[in-house]
Design a protein that fits this description.
Number of helices: 10
Number of strands: 8
Largest sheet: 8 strands, mixed
Oligomer: single chain
Strand content: 5-15%
Radius of gyration: 17 Å
Length: about 280
């Protein structure tokens, strides 16, 4: 019987992209290439990495980019004001995950309308720069997660619904209160992390799952990757102590990108034996 393998790439900002890239390259260098998974679930930062690896961009090239000097750009952060917006939305949701998505999505839309976040044009430019290939892979393995503002429901883009890869990734990376919600097909979407840092349950029916989760927390109705996968044979990997130090306090700081990528690559040495075992 052929094993069905799922790769989960969770959210975690600019440093999350770098850490996941380094870890994937480190695993491949140690003989554990997981990028050929049957399904790749990408949330926020993970949607960028998922789009890159499923469209065939080589991990060594991706790593080289991560450790190169970043282009000058305004520094974004998940500020105390943004965190307060998250908390208010969580309190108003009263444990209802979709209600949280609606509240935080509408709050994010108000901030965008007031000009307190970058423009959509600026965000699309940033996303295009991160995607060397901007068309969905023909094999249909990638699942990009976002949350619809009007309903708070999870939306999964896979290239078969008319949404472009750039639009889908921009929506998945639309951190509420930091970046503007993204319109697709007459609806508006925010970061898939508004439902889960991993959305790992999308591959809970697979035989083996490896989840790389830069930020994997249970908060209110949100659940960790391990909780979402339950009894599914899986390995959930989060940054170790050295990687946490490399990432620093602001996951949206491009200056921490190189250190995060190198720390992820170094962490692969400890992860590889476990990943080899779970991958089958």
């Amino acid at each position: 019987m052929t094993l069905r393998r799922g790769l989960v790439l969770g959210g975690g900002g600019i440093t999350g992209i770098a850490w996941e890239t380094g870890l994937l390259l480190g695993l491949r260098d140690l003989g554990v290439d997981v990028t050929g998974a049957d399904v790749v679930v990408g949330t926020s930062a993970g949607s960028v990495v998922g789009a890159q690896v499923t469209t065939g961009v080589d991990l060594a090239d991706l790593f080289a980019h991560q450790v190169s000097p970043p282009k000058p750009a305004p520094l974004a952060s998940i500020s105390p004001l943004v965190l307060a917006g998250f908390v208010r939305a969580m309190i108003r949701a009263r444990g209802d995950l979709e209600a949280f998505g609606r509240h935080v999505g509408r709050w994010s839309a108000r901030r965008a309308a007031a000009g307190k976040v970058p423009t959509l044009e600026q965000r699309f430019e940033a996303i295009r720069e991160r995607l060397p290939i901007q068309e969905w892979a023909a094999d249909g393995r990638l699942r990009v997660t976002a949350v619809e503002v009007a309903t708070g429901a999870l939306r999964v883009f896979d290239g078969r619904d008319g949404a472009s890869l750039v639009d889908a990734v921009a929506a998945s990376c639309a951190v509420p209160g930091v970046y503007p919600p993204v319109p697709i097909g007459g609806r508006t979407f925010i970061d898939g992390g508004a439902r889960s840092g991993s959305n790992a349950d999308l591959v809970a029916d697979h035989d083996r799952v490896l989840a790389l989760t830069p930020v994997d927390r249970a908060a209110g109705p949100m659940r960790t990757a391990g909780q979402l996968l339950g009894s599914t044979p899986h390995l959930a990997v989060s940054p170790d102590q050295a990687s946490v130090a490399a990432i620093g306090k602001n996951v949206l700081d491009p200056a921490r990108r190189a250190a995060s990528a190198r720390a992820g690559r170094d962490q692969a040495a400890a992860v590889a034996p476990l990943a080899r075992e779970i991958w089958g």
